[in-house]
Structure formats: C-alpha cells, structure tokens
Amino acid sequence: MRVVVLVSGSGTLLQALLDAAATDPAAPYEVVAVGADRAGTGGVDRARAAGVPTFVVPLAAYDERADWDAALAAAVAEHAPDLVVSAGFMKVLGPAALAGPPVLNAHPALLPSFPGAHAVRDALAHGVKVSGCTIHLVDAGVDTGPVVAQRAVEVLDDDDEATLHERIKVAERALLVEVLDRLARGGMVVEGRKVRLG
C-alpha cells in the first residue's frame, strides 16, 4: 500500500510509520512521499533523512483556498498513493484533496468528544477521567469523519496539557501503525459511519 503522509509539525507520527516500515521487512505499506503546508517542518526533515520524497504546498502562496486545495491534491496525486495520512497536518482539506484516495487523520481525543485543534486542553478543562486518540476517515467537516480505531488513555490527577498529550501521542503512534498494517493487509469496509478493518 502506497502512503502519502501530510505533516505540519515535528513529524513524530510520521517517524513511527517510517520506523515500523524500516524494522519490518514484510511491512505491507510504504511511505512514498511526505507533504507539508509550510517549509522548515521537522516532519519534512525526518522524511528527507529517511530518503523519502517531499513536497511543500504553502497556503500563503495562493489567493484562494480552493486553489491551494487543488494544488495540494495535484502534489499528492503525483505519487499515486493508495492512502493519504494526515499526521498532525493542521489544515482542513477541501473537495479536491478529498476526491482522491481515502484520507486518515490521527486526533488526540476520543471523538466525537473534543474535536478541533485544542483537544487535549479541552478534555482537561472538561474534567474527563479518560481521554485517548482516534484514527478516523477525513470528510468535509473538522474531525467529523467515521471512526476507524480508538485507544483510551487515563487522565491522571496531576496531568497538565503537556503530560497528558505526551501519553496520548505514545498511544496514537502505536495505534496509527496498527491501523495501517491492518488496512494494508485486509482492506476496509465502510458502511455509513461504521468502519471495519479486514
């Protein structure tokens, strides 16, 4: 399975995928390219260090959001992926990007609770005792697509945003690798909002 990964930040989720593929000769997926919405990201640096092709499509370079979306879709399509993974990519994808192969997103909360960019902070402010991470299919909304997999993470009494987020990231990296492995080996069936991995 050919995978293009989209990043905006340090690229720790990307690194988990690269490491898993590098350490397993029988890994059923390959990261064929990494794209970013801005130059100078740690994720792009990680990809280059691993010898993976990269591309950057900055939103600021386009007058219209739709033009950026079309350019991003074209850049992704050049690598002929079977799947796109949004791994800390902090931009909402539009119709052109979503018209291609399926897009998975990793989110640091148990959706549908706490969507958006401040999920960990919002969960703590709400006083939840359990949070976690979600891998979901991306649709036109913000963190509203069908859930593919989830993993719970206990919220400790002395947690702050940084400590809880770090534990969620550990779970998120492991879950994303597992989902890609299962998806590449057995496919995926989507019926409405229900997703079943092969």
UniProtKB/TrEMBL annotation:
Pathway info: Purine metabolism; IMP biosynthesis via de novo pathway; N(2)-formyl-N(1)-(5-phospho-D-ribosyl)glycinamide from N(1)-(5-phospho-D-ribosyl)glycinamide (10-formyl THF route): step 1/1
Active site (record annotation): H107
GO biological process, one term: 'de novo' IMP biosynthetic process
GO CC aspect terms: cytosol
GO molecular function: phosphoribosylglycinamide formyltransferase activity
Superkingdom of origin: Bacteria
Entry-linked InterPro entries: Formyl_transf_N, Formyl_transf_N_sf, GART, GART_AS
UniProt catalytic activity: N(1)-(5-phospho-beta-D-ribosyl)glycinamide + (6R)-10-formyltetrahydrofolate = N(2)-formyl-N(1)-(5-phospho-beta-D-ribosyl)glycinamide + (6S)-5,6,7,8-tetrahydrofolate + H(+)
Swiss-Prot/TrEMBL site (Raises pKa of active site His) positions: D143
Recorded family membership: Belongs to the GART family.
Official protein name in the record: Phosphoribosylglycinamide formyltransferase
Gene encoding the protein: purN
